[in-house]
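Quick board copy: two proteins, each given as sequence then tokens.
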Amino acid sequence: MSEHTPGESPAGWYPDPSDPALRRYWDGSAWTAHTALAQAAQPTALQPHSHSGPKRAPPPPSDRGFFGWVSRRPRPAFWATLAAALIVGMGVGAAAVQEDGAQKPRDDSAALTEANEELSDARAGRKAAEKRLSKARDALEATEGQSGSTGKRRAPRPMASSSGGAVQSFSGNGGKSFGTISIPTDSVLEWTNDGDVFQVFSSDEVPVNSRGKRGDTVLFKGKYRKFQVNAVGNWTIEIRPR
């Protein structure tokens, strides 16, 4: 049987494309449901003989896979479904982008607010430190001015006030912490030290910061928290009401 292309093959029995043991009838345009064993089927009179046999016609399109699924369903409904799915997907994507765009300004605003708060705290801390440093510098200059060039001159001792009051005395060597001390009335703090550095601190101020051997300063009425001494050598403190 001579070779034929699918459009040129005449009607007749040909090898079954899906089973070589069978022959299937080709009606000239498509395969039919009629089959027979390969030995039993005989070529029709219209089917010419050849040594090579007929060229197999291509099998009918498969109904499997995506394209088969498309061919089995009404095309308008399929395309409508596909269009709806695309619209929904685009809507979800746009909503996600919009949400991200709205979230970013909120995050930036929160970060800016936090940075401003930290900057304000830093400025407040700097001002407090500058204030304490200024007080310490003034106290040191006053003490050095009272001590003079020899370091032995002592400022005049203030007169005791008529209200009286107990004298508070402290002594030690090196650093020492006293917690909170109460000053019932405006008083004078007198101190001596045989070292090179003498400092008195509280949580709010630095009453004494000196390199002299003795001196005094005013303590106003109130409570002094975290009252402590930082010194080199032996020292004494007396707090006398004015």
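And the next:
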Amino acid sequence: MVRKILLIGVGILAALAVAGALIVPRIAHDVARRQVERMARNWGLHVMDMDVAVGWDTITVRNLHMVAPGFSAKIREVRLPSWKITRVLTPSIRVGEIFVDGVVVDGEIPPAWHRKRRENAAGIGGKRLAWEKLTVSGIALDVEDREIHLVTRDGGLKYSRAGGGHLDLTELQLKSPWLPVYFIDAATVITTAGHEIDSVKLAGLVWPFSKDFQLYTATAMLKPEGSGQLSFAVEGRFLPDRGTLVANGLYDRRSGKLVSHAELQDAWVGLLIPPTMPVQNREAARFSGKVDLTRAAGVSDVTADGRLTGVTVFHPRIAPEALRDLGATFSLIARHDAGANLLDIPQLTFTHGKLAARASGRVRRDPETRKLQLTADLEVPRMSCADAVAAFPPQLVPNLRQLTLGGTVDGRLHLFIDFARLETEDARLSGKIDLDRCRVLQAPPALRATRLMHDFGYSVVEPGGQRVGVEVSADNEWTRPLEEISPYMVAAVLTTEDGAFWRHHGFITSEFATALTQNLRARKFKFGASSITMQIVKNVFFERKKTLSRKLEELFFTWYVEQVVSKRRLMEIYLNIIELGPDIYGVPRAAQHFFNKNPLDLTVREAIYLASILPSPKKRYAFYCNQAVPDYWNRALDRLLAIMKRRGRITAEEYDAAVAETLTFDPVEYTSRDECFRMIRRYQGK
């Protein structure tokens, strides 16, 4: 009986074993297939094809192909070794480790992936496949997601539920409008056991700033710091051979706040120079120093300390020659508020040679007109005059470089320009450059102010190429002492040219802002704030070139001449050298040419006429060619006469006589109208 029962039991167990051998693999096959299909649905994919093979020791899924609109994922093989079935009513598979090989993903990431990532982060979703470790090899990606296009040649993943893992990708190509990186040699993503990213290490990054300027970073590290913050560290070099960069910082993904620190060595900054600026050889422009940036809510705060070198500037309106190898050591604090259209620079200090200066400024853009409002202040503390001149490029002040200077100088300037109201409001320019402690110890003979105290001469090259000699000497028939020139002529030029001549020290400071405004309106260097002394200086010492170089030297030599030469002598020189027509220099020559008179005998109206044509003597010589002063010009002369009377430069009787007078040109030197106009064109270079 017992033997019979044992035989029955053995038979039942054998039957169960046979049934298990037949049924369990089938259950595993179905569970594996359903799990793959379920996983695909959760990620917004549809399984197009797969082969599932179940053995006693390994489950293998081959040729898995999953798709979504515009997306494809292919996996060559998935192996689940040492598997077993757990639970009976709701069967599931448990394995120790999953091996995946040959993953090819192509196309645009389905929207469901973003939802699934959020669910995984929140711990949502059940599992029919339990595993402890995951190993993936042969990852190749060509995917697009939210304006990012990522291509990788190869990659692998090792992950453990207990300890996290790492994803390694090689030869990444990345395109994104907001991430200026297009190639990465290798990337390693370290994750925690809870699927959180611990750090991202990148190697061999190429950042394309322009077609011919790139940053290669040997290493870059990104690390989440909790509460949505991400720290980063970058070290690299600019290509080709354009300096090095070391940077680090912290980015808050929730608030958008960025805090960064960068150190640059010999970094190329030519790319940052606007193309409209007259900078030559931009390749040589380099910066070495530190830059700190904090950006949040549309406001950027910048602190920079460093040295700029290798800048070369050329524009014919600046100087005849290029200003080479410009540079300075500087410290900058600035804030840019995008919402307020405001750039504020509360502090800028810079040093070049022995020149140390402080500046500040503000630029605001009008939201309606889109035009700028500029405020700027500059201060130069007291320093040696010789050091101040030495700080300027030699091409900018070639004549000043020939002087030996003593004493000290300091200065301060304030500038305000509202471009939105420039047509109705003048720019404001104020301040003072204190040269009074400067002394010219030695100068070449041609540059000495004392040459004006004696007989001298110089030449003028006309626009037409004619070289005209001008001589102020007792031997010249057209040179007269001041007492032999009509006092009305002195009163006339004081009215039209320089009303404060006897009081100022060479400069009409109020006219600087007016000239600046006129030049800005004309959008070119057209007007100058020239006093009588400045006109003498630019004619006697310099060529007729409207450049910044000439203007700077003109300002210094005006001060220099005023220290040496008396006002009376300056007025005498001026009236003997001013241009009043083609090849007509000086009032004595003009009095003879226009009126056949001795300069002492000029009437009030004749004197104011000569003064009125001073700004454009060749152009207004046309009045003489026509042998008549037009009515509109006579009305202008009457207005000038009224100003002379109001300012006490002529009496009421002299005014009445001048208004009643009719100007008549003397015809002695007149040839013909055609020849007269031809001469104008020749001297104008037309």
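Board note added afterward: Residues 443-684 form a domain with the Penicillin binding protein transpeptidase fold fold (CATH 1.10.3810.10).
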